[in-house]
Write a structure and sequence with these properties.
The protein is α/β, with parallel strands linked by helices. The chain has 10 helices and 12 strands.
């Protein structure tokens, strides 16, 4: 629909020519029709902004024609320009939605003014419709962006959770011995160093055990490395089961050696734990025919315990326990010995 398109319907050629010329001079695009048949042909081919019509139209009642045209063109403004008006026809025209009702003779400038008012209303209506459509488009776009934002945030939450789980798994893998499932040498070094410093600051005792499987090389030579790995798993599990306090832990030191850290534990307590661990391995009754101690698997344990002295070096306690372990081996194995510390 052109915003300045007008259909002028009248059976008087003088009106069509005169008013049509005046409207064209104002820049409007004007089509004319001298009867209802031509008018319907025109309106079926083009959408008009304004239709100006007389009430007396050949072949058709003017108001009936307007009513039918309005049903086909609901956005078009209809103006009645007639010399045969009655109060009844004016009321009917208003009821069917005619925008204005003018009486002939009427100055062209008045008609042009009414047409301008209709077009201004139509323009405002289009502006509102366009703004409404723009707002709806913006609202729809915002909804999509919010949905996308929520989806991205949800994916980020999932990714963060997966990353945390992955990092936790990696962290666990980095501190767990893959064969035995107890803590590894890295965890032992890092955590033991912290516990030594804490015990030194707090002036509290700490116990440390080094455990060695007696004649493990002979066990491997006799039973094979696969059986040796299974033996290490059973020993590690038996040790770990007997370490109950949250602060205590078992770690694989390397090969067939394991360590136990016992924060806040006295020498007597450390010896009790060591003896319980020694007995737990003996109670496994794992066959070890190559052992020079007895025909089942046994362990030797070196114990070190005390209050760390500045500069709180954890390796000093390891060295003390290691000497005690050597002594246990020298004294026949399957036993617990105490090292000097500090």
């Amino acid at each position: 629909m052109k915003p300045n398109s007008i259909l002028l319907i009248d059976d008087e050629q003088v009106i069509l020519a005169s008013l049509g010329h005046s409207l064209k001079e104002k820049g409007y695009h004007v089509d004319t029709a001298e009867n209802s048949r031509v008018a319907f042909e025109k309106i079926s081919q083009k959408n008009y902004s304004v239709v100006i019509t007389d009430l007396r139209i050949p072949e058709r009642d003017g108001l009936e024609m307007v009513n039918e045209m309005k049903a086909k063109c609901p956005e078009t403004y209809f103006l009645v320009l007639t010399g045969h008006a009655t109060l009844d026809s004016a009321i009917k025209a208003i009821r069917i939605g005619v925008a204005d009702f003018m009486l002939k003779p009427c100055d062209d400038s008045q008609v042009i003014n009414r047409v301008g008012l209709c077009l201004e209303q139509l323009e405002r209506k289009w502006t509102v419709e366009k703004q409404t459509k723009d707002l709806e488009d913006i609202n729809e776009k915002l909804k999509k962006e919010i949905l996308l934002k929520n989806e991205i945030e949800n994916q980020l939450r999932i990714s963060r959770q997966e990353l945390l789980v992955h990092n936790e798994a990696l962290q666990k893998l980095s501190i767990i011995d893959p064969l035995t499932g107890v803590f590894n040498r890295r965890y032992l070094n890092e955590t033991f160093a912290k516990e030594i410093k804490r015990a030194g600051r707090e002036k509290s005792e700490i116990g440390f055990l080094i455990i060695d499987i007696d004649y493990f090389k002979l066990y491997n030579d006799t039973n094979g490395h696969q059986a040796g790995d299974e033996c290490l798993k059973q020993v590690a599990n038996a040790l770990d089961v007997h370490i109950n306090r949250p602060t205590d832990f078992v770690a694989r030191y390397g090969g067939e050696e394991f360590c136990v850290v016992l924060p806040g534990t006295s020498l007597q307590g450390s010896l009790q734990v060591a003896e319980a661990l020694r007995k737990s391995i003996e109670d496994l009754k794992l066959e070890h025919t190559s052992s020079k101690v007895k025909n089942t698997l046994t362990i030797s344990i070196g114990v070190s315990c005390g209050i760390p002295q500045f500069p709180f070096v954890y390796k000093d306690m390891i060295a003390s326990a290691d000497k005690a372990l050597y002594l246990a081996k020298e004294n026949g194995r399957n036993r617990v010995e105490i090292g000097v510390y500090p």
